[in-house]
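>> received
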Amino acid sequence: MSKYRAKKTVIDGIMFDSKAEAQYYVELKLLKRSKKIASFECQPEYELIPKFKKNGKTFRAVKYIADFLVTHLDGSEEVVDVKGVLTPVYRLKKTLFESKYPHLTIKEVKR
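>> returned
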């Protein structure tokens, strides 16, 4: 159990960080099967700040890993994050994401 009381859940051999995220995955599978969305991807990764060196020290890249990337029938894409708690780190990464990827928007699903 995490510090936010989310219970990891496995569906189709995929480990989800919470029951809510796993349930959203099931909903996406149904939408894809009924041809209401074109496709979806689990855990898409977006680089927010590339790896760099400063004063001889190497800094790792800063990344945002969303829960899902949904491709709609019209080809538009939607980044989905299933959230119970909006942490300060998430809010900062969301701001960086919105700046670097203006063509994409994060849809927060609160459960």
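>> The longest strand covers residues 77-83.
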